[in-house]
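Lab notebook, bench 4. We co-purified these components, and the gel suggests they stay together. Before we commit to crystallization screens, I want a quick structural picture of the whole thing.
Request: model the full complex, all chains together.
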Amino acid sequence: MDRKSYVERLKEEVRSLCEKRRAVILAHNYQSPEVQDVADYVGDSLELAKKAVTVDADVIVFAGVSFMAETVAILNEDKVILHPVREAGCPLADFLNIETIRKFKEKYPRAPLVVYVNSYAEAKMYADYIVTSASALRLISKLDDETVLFGPDKNLAAYVAKKSDKKVIPVPPHSYCYVHECLITRYHIEKARDERSTAKLMVHPEVSPSNQEMADYIGSTSQMLKAIDKSDENIFLLGTEEALSYRARNLYPDKEIYPVNPRAICVDMKKINLLNMKESLERLKHKVIIKKKVRQKIKSILDKSLEMIK
Ligand code: SF4
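Here is the predicted assembly.
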């Protein structure tokens, strides 16, 4: 008789605990294949936050990094939100602290502060608007202001500035995601193109501006997936965290889809695994708790921002 693998057994245990707890698993596009496989829904941070609101469950296990789990908790007052590994944070989000925000607001008192969703609640509290990589350009283009403060992520700020007629000041000026800035470089792109010369190159706007220029398409993870769906092309190189390629291949099995760099790994995303998800469901840990005042304030900014891009 075939012996089930450790991973298969864990998957079954996680699913049975989900039934027992009336729980659903939401997993980010950058999660490992086995976490994506066991999840009820896979998507980008905004898609998952929206799904969390409509899903019929008592408990949500969030497989992603902590700022995303916070957003899900802000939008879901009535559900228990579990984040299996508290330490799964985001080095990009760490760039935007209150002291930096105050300094830039003092220097540019009339410029609205647009905060990237890849930030912690304490920073979002100071935002005039909150955007994702998919909505940043659309929302900032609609503002009447000529000058806009945007943070964290200098590369996304540069992308929006280039595509809009706005002066977009990055807050702070040196903020970046190491996966996109350091692991999707010209070297990785040229090497991947040598191996697959006919592939269409897609990159995330968090890669540096000079590398964005090499791409056939620039977009967020959800925008890349939609663009693959619409495209007549068959071979794609994705310049973002490597796990999006697994997600894309599952969605479009007839297409050939590869990461630009198979070693472009977000270590924090990969801190979530089947074992700590199982333990999270068993012990109902770690609950994401957001203070009422913080939740109400951020929710109102999120609602206003979503209304702007309707
Ligand atoms: S990929 Fe970059 S922005 Fe996304 S969670 Fe990891 S470090 Fe943060």
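The pocket of iron/sulfur cluster is lined by residues 30, 65, 90-92, 118, 177, 179, 241, 266, 268-269 (CB under 6 Å). Worth comparing against the SEC data before the next meeting. DSSP finds 16 helices and twelve strands in the chain.
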